[in-house]
């Protein structure tokens, strides 16, 4: 895998922003006020425009901040340990789920990049959602989970 150009962005629900504007004039509504782990997403640059369209039109979110950089896997970091300053590396794991979708009658692959601090929690939510929506058919094909250690390279 090595390296992927990626955008780290922070999102907020549009109605949350509107409601907060109405409720208080002293509230901090700057983009930086929404910068916490629950609002961050890591999206490969090749998928970003389509993802942004869906998240803003279908799911009613607003992008409050975007940062362009790269994600590297553990092997890439180990090749040249001096290439990346450890202070600029943020642990972000790659999750790949493959399964047979009953709804679409085809094999599906879902890939997400998740901060290590929230990885297990978010992984379980994603798996639960797949199972609840009846998307998985374990009789025809097993549910495969691949986890890969990696890093978001912060801007210097």
Shape: globular
Which runs of at least 5 residues are low in confidence (pLDDT < 50)? 24-36
Number of domains: 1
Q: Structural class given helices, strands, pairing?
A: alpha+beta
Rg (C-alpha, Å): 18 Å
Average of pLDDT: 82
Helix content: 25-40%
| Percentage of residues in strands | 35-45%
The count of strands amounts to 7
Main beta-sheet strand count, sense and barrel state: 7 strands, antiparallel
Distance between the first and last residues' Cα: 23 Å
Helix-strand sequence: EHEHEHEEHEE
Helix tally equals 4
Essential attributes:
single chain, 156 residues, alpha+beta, seven-stranded antiparallel sheet, 28% helix
Write up this protein.
This protein is an alpha+beta fold and about 160 residues long. The protein has one domain (about 5-155). The chain is about 30% helix and about 40% strand. The chain is built from four helices and seven strands, in the order βαβαβαββαββ. The chain has helices at about 15-25, 45-55, 75-80, 120-130; strands at about 5-15, 40-45, 60-75, 90-100, 105-115, 145-150, 150-155. Strands 1, 2, 3, 4, 5, 6 and 7 form a seven-stranded antiparallel beta sheet that branches. The protein is globular, with a radius of gyration of 18 Å. About 10% of the residues are buried. Mean pLDDT is about 80; it is low at about 25-35.
């Amino acid at each position: 895998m090595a390296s992927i150009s990626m955008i780290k962005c922070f999102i907020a629900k549009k109605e949350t922003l509107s409601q907060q504007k109405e409720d208080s004039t002293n509230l901090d509504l700057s983009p930086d006020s929404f910068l916490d782990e629950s609002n961050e997403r890591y999206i490969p640059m090749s998928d970003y425009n389509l993802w942004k369209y869906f998240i803003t039109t279908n799911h009613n979110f607003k992008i409050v901040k975007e940062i362009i950089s790269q994600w590297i896997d553990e092997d890439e970091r180990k090749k040249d340990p001096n290439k990346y300053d450890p202070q600029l590396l943020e642990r972000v794991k790659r999750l790949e789920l493959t399964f047979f979708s009953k709804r679409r009658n085809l094999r599906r692959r879902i890939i997400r990049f998740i901060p290590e601090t929230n990885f297990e929690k978010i992984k379980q939510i994603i798996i639960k959602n797949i199972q609840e929506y009846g998307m998985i058919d374990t009789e025809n094909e097993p549910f495969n989970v691949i986890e890969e250690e990696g890093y978001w390279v912060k801007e210097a």
